[in-house]
Amino acid sequence: MESVPVPATSRSIAAATATLLLSTAILGASPATADPAGSAPVGSSAPGLPQLPPPPVDHLGRPAPHILQQLRDLAAQEFLPEKIRDMLLAAVGFFEGGGEPGAPLPENAPVFAQFGWPTVAENCIGGENRATGTAIAVPGPADLPLPGVPAGHATFVFTALGTGRVAENQQASMQVRWINISNLRTGVTPLTYTGINPDGPATIAGTADTGTGTIVALLDGGVTTTGDGGDSTCRFLPTTGIFDVR
After folding, report:
1. Which helix (H) or strand (E) holds 186?
2. Which stretches of sequence are listed as region Disordered (predicted)?
3. Residue (of 173, 238, 228, 170) closest to 200 by Cα position
């Protein structure tokens, strides 16, 4: 389903969903706190001038250093399950340059926004090893990925790093559920093989008619890959992103 207008009676639900996804996407960034007298927020550099918190993401949509530190601090908590701890530390290493590169793009690639953190799938590569997945959003108008992204649209691209090519017989599906919090348009965009990386790693994509505005997106699902070891169905943990279509 693409570009489903939100009825007036459903706007409160859509707004609540957007708020939830936004909170997840920015990984707990909080606004400045006002003092009891209602004057300038605590920490202001000058009277009457609020001290804004640092942005949670950089110009590519990647978590800022203070967000990565929050992830690292969370991973250090004893109550956290080992698998979640490994996923968080993998995300931190990915964005600090210690992990694998993101989805392959040419040097003249268009402006894009990377989803907030990479995701993982167990028993994926060769049916045994863990794979890291990375997702980006390319707001239009853009010439790439082919055949291009029209104005007022966004193309989502997901790559399962280290895997073979996309299998013809898909045993899983991946989709991006998105909401434009500027015009309250929503949609579910399926990701399929579109000719990107025909020899692997497995890469799937889909284009959404989002309209202009700020988009909050949730990616979830899986993809079946094929290689020398046969077919493997990789089911990835969800990841979220936020970006603008102008």
Report:
1. strand 185-191
2. 32-60
3. 228
